[in-house]
Amino acid sequence: AQTVTQSQPEMSVQEAETVTLSCTYDTSESDYYLFWYKQPPSRQMILVIRQEAYKQQNATENRFSVNFQKAAKSFSLKISDSQLGDAAMYFCAYRSADSGGSNYKLTFGKGTLLTVNP
Amino acid sequence: KAGVTQTPRYLIKTRGQQVTLSCSPISGHRSVSWYQQTPGQGLQFLFEYFSETQRNKGNFPGRFSGRQFSNSRSEMNVSTLELGDSALYLCASSSRTASFSYEQYFGPGTRLTVT
Questions:
Q1: Helix H or strand E segment including B88
Q2: For an engineered disulfide with B87, which of A36, B38, B72, B108 has Cβ 3.0 to 4.6 Å away?
Q3: Looking at the partner chain, which of A45, A50, A105 has a beta carbon nearest the beta carbon of B90?
């Protein structure tokens, strides 16, 4: 079974600074997807960024980028120019690429609570 | 396009009762997944429905069940409620079929409190 580990329960960053959230995962599959989701106090889960395991290039979405190290099974999220609205719980998630298999589900880490200080 | 909707948003039930939660996916999405979120266990996968068939199931007791209708709307049912069933229940929809449309989009959740 796949597992996702987020070792930082809480992180804080000053507004306009950069912060990196860590995520490691364990899998025996070679093809999969990785995601970062954001959950603000409203509890609405919002997709921040995704990474396909077969792509070597790291995904980037505006101020959000990832450092994907497949061999190390590491998937960190970097938030640049942090804004007050970035304050939320961030979840790292894994999903198998095998759409016909029983592992076609999101497996989440425990989350990292990000605080942005003005 | 309208997002994923879940009803009701809040629910208070008594131990031993049963409850039904509803989820309407994004138009055109045929896959609906359910997740339970609690402070202790985090986010856990309950089950997934695609084209009215349960495709995947998480490690939950048989008291948790679901179904999907022909219009892709899904319901989940919890019978004989226990205090530990108090949680935020999240529904997510996905097109699933297209290789590039694999994101799951979440609804706002239903907060269930069992007393």
A1: strand B87-94
A2: B38
A3: A45
Distance of CA A66 to the CA centre of its chain: 8
pLDDT tens by residue, B11-45: 999 999 999 999 999 998 888 999 999 999 999 99
Helices (H) then strands (E): counts for chain B: 0, 11
Yes or no, beta carbons of A50 and B103 under 8 Å apart: yes
Residue type for position B77: N
Q: Among partner residues A37, A43, A99, which is closest to B88 by beta-carbon distance?
A: A43
Q: What is the pLDDT along chain A (118 residues), one digit of tens a residue?
A: 789 999 999 999 999 999 999 999 999 988 899 999 999 998 899 999 999 998 889 999 999 999 999 999 999 999 999 999 999 999 999 998 776 666 678 999 999 999 999 9
- Six token digits for residue A114: 């990000």
3-class DSSP assignment, residue B40: coil
The pLDDT of residue B96 is above 60: yes
> Up-side HSE of residue B96: CA atoms within 13 Å toward CB?
24
Amino acid at B16: G
Q: What is the CA radius of gyration of chain B?
A: 14
3-state percent breakdown (helix, strand, coil) of chain B, nearest 5? 5, 50, 45
- Identify the pLDDT of residue A56: 86
List, as ranges, residues 40-79 from B with C-beta within 8 Å of A.
42-43, 45, 48, 55-56, 58
Nearest C-alpha in B relative to A93: B43
Query: Taking CB atoms and an 8 Å limit, are A47 and B105 in contact across chains?
Result: yes
